[in-house]
Design goal:
By secondary structure, the chain is an alpha+beta fold. It is built from 17 helices and 13 strands. The protein has three domains: 163 residues, no CATH class; 53 residues, no CATH class; 145 residues, no CATH class. The strands form six sheets. The protein has a three-stranded antiparallel sheet, with no helix packed on it. It has a two-stranded antiparallel sheet with strand order 1-2. The longest helix has 32 residues.
Length: 414
């Protein structure tokens, strides 16, 4: 192979590199099409599409999230999608366009992308987004906040906040979202989870507000749950939130995994005795559990915040609150193990096995299969890709002000 390359002229090397680059871009587009279809179908093994990509295809979590985002946007941008599929646009250019293009301005932005280099396009789009965001400020003046329990047990709320209060609320919401995302340190990985929803962030805000520092964090907030002993152990019985609606028995068992418990004995509605409050997982054991597991142990998940101590064999079924019977799970995967039908079992002192609702094993890190490069290249050869396919841009020095003026003109013409 080395001898073959030595025999090529510089022009031939450049042409082959350019042609292969366009093949890569067309192949990447095809890959994102498959990602979009997989995302549309859903039904992953206890994870999101981006988490599955990071786990199954060996991507970093941030890269996986970005690929899913762009895959979703391609369906809304047919012109950009077509140019990408033909190998005319690089992934970097498509990524920049996906942040600013819409149905109305897609054609004009596509022409701009063909004239600019990838770095110039990225810079122009960043500046344009700052300008357009500054024009979109809204003011809310009437302050109110209302809530009620819906028929299905959900808490429904809504309201308006004054501008300064709204800004504080959004800061708190962002802080809760950042805590859920567990921003990694420099050079580290991170969760493959997509950006948390506002509903998840609001719940995290409440959790953070009720935790007064590291010591208090070990003591979960005092939301009272009334559970009949029969329901807790898997039989019949009622479960309801204090001053709230009824909940499913399996939800009660999930919450009881990692909460304080007070035993109250009753007969025909009369209280006979009230036991002492006990911690399901005491602070010392929780510290040892965090040191061992470091975060959620569900395959492909790297969340470190808002994790629960899950009893592999529930204490209501005779399972002991010991380190070898506990595992850390994030809130979403804890729900999947209880309410979602997933299963976790301990194989040895250091090894766990997770199973999906059908009983199939969920591997920690599967090996990617060998790629069908010949098939991919054959498919892209039908597009007549050569060294002239990719639109690299003129490479001239960019006038940022002129580029932004053009983008704003496109927006104003829509």
């Amino acid at each position: 192979m080395d001898g073959e390359l030595v025999g090529l002229s510089s022009a031939e090397l450049e042409d082959e590199l350019a042609a292969l680059a366009s093949h890569i871009y067309a192949g990447t587009c095809r890959w994102l099409e498959l990602v979009a279809e997989l995302d549309r179908r859903g039904g992953f093994a206890g994870c999101t599409c981006s988490e599955w990509l990071a786990w199954r295809c060996g991507l970093t979590p941030r890269t996986a999230r970005e690929h899913v985002r762009i895959a979703r946007r391609l369906a809304e941008l047919p012109l950009v999608h077509g140019a990408f599929a033909r190998g005319e646009l690089s992934f970097a250019k498509v990524r920049a366009l996906s942040r600013a293009a819409s149905e109305e301005n897609e054609r004009e932005l596509l022409e701009l992308a063909r004239a600019l280099t990838a770095a110039q396009l990225e810079r122009a789009v960043r500046a344009y987004r700052r300008v357009s965001t500054g024009e979109a400020a809204a003011v809310q003046e009437t302050a109110s906040f209302d809530w009620y329990w819906d028929e299905d047990g959900s808490l429904v709320f809504g309201g308006r906040l004054a501008p300064e209060d709204g800004a504080v609320f959004l800061e708190a919401l962002q802080a809760a979202r950042d805590a859920l995302r567990e921003r990694p340190a420099e050079g580290e990985g991170g969760s493959a989870e997509p950006r948390p929803t506002n509903a998840e962030a609001v719940a995290a805000m409440a959790d953070l507000a009720l935790s007064a520092g590291p010591e208090r964090a070990c003591e979960r907030h005092q939301v009272v749950l009334h559970v009949d002993v029969g329901a807790l152990s898997g039989g019949e019985g009622g479960c309801e939130l204090g001053d709230g609606p009824a909940i499913a028995p399996e939800t009660a068992r999930r919450l009881a995994c990692d909460s304080s418990v007070v035993e109250i004995r009753e007969r025909e509605g009369a209280t006979l005795s009230v036991g002492r409050k006990t911690r399901s997982v005491p602070p010392a054991l929780r510290r040892a559990l965090r040191r061992r597991d470091r975060g959620c142990r569900f395959p492909g998940c790297e969340n470190h915040r808002f994790v629960d101590a899950h009893h592999v064999r529930h204490w209501a079924h005779g399972g002991e609150t010991r380190l070898d019977n506990l595992v850390l799970l994030c809130r979403r995967h804890h729900r999947l193990v209880h309410e979602g039908g997933y299963l976790v079992e301990r194989v040895s002192e250091s090894e766990l096995r997770f199973r999906d609702p059908c009983g199939g094993p969920i591997l920690d890190a599967p090996r990617p299969p060998p790629g069908g490069l010949d098939t991919l290249l054959e498919r892209n050869r039908s597009l007549r890709i050569d060294e002239r396919t990719y639109r690299s841009g003129d490479g001239d020095r960019m006038d940022l002000g002129h580029a932004i003026d053009a983008l704003i003109a496109v927006r104003a013409a829509v």
